[in-house]
Design goal:
Blueprint: E1 6-9, H1 27-40, E2 44-47, E3 49-50, E4 56-57, H2 60-73, E5 77-80, H3 90-93, E6 107-111, E7 115-117, E8 120-122, H4 126-138, E9 143-147, H5 151-161, E10 170-175, H6 185-193, E11 200-205, H7 210-219, E12 223-226, E13 233-235, E14 238-239, H8 243-256, H9 264-270
Parallel strand pairs: 1-2, 1-12, 2-5, 5-6, 6-9, 9-10, 10-11, 11-12
Antiparallel strand pairs: 3-4, 7-8, 13-14
Helix pairs in contact: 1-2, 1-8, 7-8
Length: 274
């Protein structure tokens, strides 16, 4: 099997300091945790940003500060979210895509459908998806296709047919969000069997499912996403003292299944990043 790419979803838009005091918010806090994640085995970080008071933001300058701080400390790949937080408009969601030169991210996410998101709705109508896909393509970035349900894989095929993305692509199966596809091994196996030929995949499972699904992904030749965006506990009732503890546990489990861990350079090749 190829080396396993571990991605650390460090901040998100939903997790709060009230839930865990270990959530990184400032650029320096994010960079410090990112460097520890890299040391623990992560090849990439999935990045949201926050205002100083902890509110979710997609502000270009907050992304710039975080990216610069991370790159001063380590060589981990940086993937910016274009999902942002529920209710944000397209221009706000694409703040991280505006950065160029040394501040340019390595990758960006693209969610290809609307989905229930706990008590809310994560709205991604088809025109909005195509607008974000266009902006990602214009920046010369590769998208990670975020799939909360199986139909989002079909929408990726439609996007490719219309010229918005290229296949094969890299997909992220987001499993266990309330109102969307469950974190169930049958769902994982169907989604990976349903991918366009040659595509790669990561699994991001929510809450208590996060670390067990690292093992399932490792056994199946896939990749894994862990971090405080999706889960705050390293074991039952025990808060992770940072994203790095979740990465370290994911790395331990992956190695126990016989997988080596991808370096950022290996991940760049595996994910076909420019």
């Amino acid at each position: 099997m190829s080396p396993m790419v571990i991605t650390a979803a460090m901040v998100g838009a939903e997790t709060t300091r009230e839930q865990t005091p270990y959530l990184p918010i400032s650029a320096d806090e994010i960079a410090e945790d990112a460097a520890k994640c890299r040391e623990a085995g992560a090849a990439m970080v999935h990045l949201h940003v926050r205002t100083p008071d902890g509110k979710p933001s997609q502000d270009k300058e907050l992304f710039r500060a975080a990216i610069r701080a991370i790159r001063k400390k380590c060589d981990v790949l940086i993937q910016v979210s274009t999902g942002g937080a529920v209710g944000m408009g397209v221009d706000e969601r694409c703040g991280g895509l505006a950065l160029e030169g040394a501040d340019r991210p390595d990758m960006a996410t693209l969610t290809t459908g609307t989905v229930n998101f706990g008590p809310d709705v994560f709205s991604n109508p088809r025109p909005l998806v195509r607008e974000i896909a266009t902006r990602i393509k214009q920046r010369g970035l590769k998208p990670e296709i975020e799939c909360f349900d199986v139909g989002m894989i079909d929408e990726a095929r439609a996007l490719a047919k219309e010229g918005f993305i290229e296949l094969p692509a890299h997909f992220d199966f987001v499993l266990g969000v309330g109102g969307a596809l469950a974190a169930d091994v049958r769902a994982l196996d169907f989604m990976r069997s349903y991918l366009p030929e040659g595509s790669t995949w990561t699994c991001a499972a929510m809450g208590r499912h996060q670390l067990p699904f690292v093992e399932l992904a490792a056994e199946r030749g896939g990749n894994a996403r862990v971090g405080l965006e999706d889960n705050i506990y390293v074991s039952k009732g025990v808060l992770a003292k940072g994203n790095f503890e979740l990465v370290a546990e994911a790395a331990r489990r992956a190695k126990a299944k016989g997988r080596t861990l991808a370096t950022p350079q290996e991940a760049r090749a595996l994910l076909r990043l420019s």
